Amino acid sequence: MTTAPSTSSLAGQAGLAPSAGSGQGLSGKWVWIWNWRRCEGGDPAKVAARLREAGCRGALVKAHDGPRWFDQGRPWREIAAALRAQGLAVGGWAYLYGRDPAGEARLVGETVSYGQADLFVLDVEAEFKGRPQAAEELCRRAREAVGPDYPLYYSSFAIARYHRSFPYQVFARYCQGAAPQVYWNAFRWPVHQALQWTYEDYAALGEPPQGVFPVAGLYAARPDGHGGVPYPAADDVKAFASEAAHRGSSGLSFWSYEHMNEEMWAAVSALGGPTQEVEMSSLEFQQLSSALATLADRVAGLEADVAALKARPSKPSPPSRPSPRTYTVRPGDTLSGIAARFGIADWRTLYQANKDVIGPDPNLIRPGQVLTIPS
What we know:
- By secondary structure, the chain is α/β, with parallel strands linked by helices.
- Helices cover 38% and strands 14% of the residues.
- The strands form two sheets. Strands 1, 2, 3, 4, 5, 6, 7, 8, 9 and 10 form a ten-stranded mixed beta sheet that branches. A two-stranded antiparallel ribbon has the order 11-12.
- The chain is globular and about 80 Å long.
């Protein structure tokens, strides 16, 4: 990850509840840590207090850069242990290049085994474009190093249609999910459009919403937010979390601790904190049991009524033809994205059903065209 990426570089609401430990993978709210010493001077108690106050489940701390350990002023294992002692989950991440897949995968494995990382994120970007073999070797070796069930994720470009040479599907095959870098403030897009295209593109690649854990860029190119990438609005951060949860994501994260100002921390805190289980009293349990029993009796009575109605002879009614489903093309739509939205496995099926409307070039669809969705 970089501090001021271009539109193609790295980028709780209710339902994103913090809970330490690795069993939930990237669920909940996380904050990325790049340079440990720039975060509260490297004081783990202060870092943990700020993360807990913001309702975060844990931190993603940089472990290495390519095949070399990243200098954090103290061993990664010690940082992770100190944060974990404060009740936080700790994930590792590394920016990877694919020039030494064996060396990079070895450090992934050591961060997991020796550093006891709760999860690991592969930050993979432009260096892997047009290099699926390098991606395959890195992922295969990393997966062998951490084991078949370890929570391994990859983070890369959000808008896949602009990065067709990137081997998304190789990384998806080896990872439990993706953390796309949805830096709408750097894209200078509305947050809703950035998320919509992200989920559409990842769905077209075969990644369901439950496997998408979007990253928000809570940084500015300059401290005053002028003359470059601005900090996002607090309302946009809220909309980002709300829409991600609505689309089915159970977790999200924010880049990055050292770049977030007080307004950004307040925005993350406002997304909600942990949800706690409340014990039910014996009286409440009895009341609930009684209500469920009454409901069960009513359902049984309704089922008997329905059965009696079905037993009556009735005149067959002529079959009615269902009205065909249609979709009006909007700016930025692609046939693959529309097909994925309606559960059509192959976009060519959609094209054949609308060839008269689209014309001979399936890559050229125009806003306003009305497409028939095949059943």
